[in-house]
Design a protein that fits this description.
89 residues, mainly alpha, 62% helix, single chain, 6 helices, 434 Repressor (Amino-terminal Domain)
Length: 89
């Protein structure tokens, strides 16, 4: 299937929240945390955390900051993935 120009442009201007979510899931598993344990560490509502991590919404910077704190990583280690294109260089 051919990639349309609009699809390519969209990848350039849309943040890749899926890649950021994947980084958060990987880190949570590395730490051996359940979702409930992560909620407690992040000090945010369970619905907010699951909404962001499962893609129901993108989340605010404040929410991503709380997630990063709960995962013991700098926020940049999650949000740097927003630029991932999913294509190999």
């Amino acid at each position: 299937m051919a990639v349309r120009a609009s699809d390519s442009l969209s990848r350039l201007i849309e943040p890749n929240f899926e890649a950021a979510r994947l980084a958060a899931h990987i880190r949570r598993r590395e730490l051996g945390l359940t979702l409930i344990q992560l909620v407690e560490r992040c000090h945010i509502a369970e619905s907010t955390l699951t909404g962001v991590l499962y893609g129901y919404h993108d989340g605010s910077v404040r929410t991503w900051w709380a997630i990063a704190r709960g995962l013991d990583v700098p926020i940049g280690s999650l949000l740097n993935h927003l630029d991932d294109t999913g294509e190999s260089a």
